[in-house]
Amino acid sequence: MHQLPDHSVVQVKIADRTVPGVWVKLRLEVDYKNPFISIHGPSDEHGLVTVDADSILSNEEIVRSLFLMDYGSIRRNWTGEVTISPMNREDLESAIAAMDSFDEANYPRGRKKELKTALEVLERLGIGHLSVQMLGGFENVRTLEREAR
Asked: Does residue 64 contact residue 71 with C-beta atoms inside 8 Å?
């Protein structure tokens, strides 16, 4: 059994410049049922997103309350592997659509507005590769780059 780090720090960049206002997506691999996805952000003025265990577990509660049969427990089933990627336009639009479909009340207050603001940030950035780097926290990490649009 693996334990989530108390907190982790992820830095978001585009073309070697740090980027404020961007969200990141964590995919935690599990040995039972579906991998767990958790979104965090927005990045601060230094492109940093702090992810704490409590926010991951709060997200898990929301997801499991909506889809209990699809997910195991992070505390019991997490393999220790995590993939981190910046959220691009498609990811953000998908998250907003999910909030529309499954009642916004199930999500943290103001989340939909924050995600729409992130869409505006990506629009201003234009085309480019968003990348993430783990600065501390998780150990068995895979990172993915994404096109901003």
From this structure: yes
